[in-house]
Amino acid sequence: MTGTVQTQNVDWDAAYTLDTCGQACPQPLLAMRRALGELPAGTLLRVLATDPGSWRDFHSYAELSRRPLLRAEQRGGVFSYWIKRDD
């Protein structure tokens, strides 16, 4: 991935949350793409997922789309991904 992502001063808790827990691949990624298309520009989106394959899917999407993941983490079997709608 190219470029630098500035994550200082990001209010992670202010993100719009999309819960895709329990959905299997590729549903979490498709739901994220749909949500990004509906949210206003500048909105920070947090996606929750339980599918282990989502880790690979979200990172691949970020690299191929040049829309960087601002943050990604796993806690207790739940994956969280933060991505921002720029356009």
UniProtKB/TrEMBL annotation:
EC number, UniProt record: 2.8.1.-
Superkingdom of origin: Bacteria
Key word Transferase present: yes
CDD domains listed in its UniProt record: SirA_YedF_YeeD
GO MF entry, a single one: transferase activity
Keywords, sorted A to Z: Transferase
One Pfam family in the UniProt entry: TusA
All residue ranges annotated as the UPF0033 domain in the record: 18-42
Primary enzyme class: transferase
Gene3D superfamilies listed in its UniProt record: TusA-like domain
Cited PANTHER family: SULFUR CARRIER PROTEIN TUSA, SULFUR CARRIER PROTEIN YEDF-RELATED
Family, as annotated: Belongs to the sulfur carrier protein TusA family.
Protein name: tRNA 2-thiouridine synthesizing protein A
Native organism: Microbulbifer rhizosphaerae
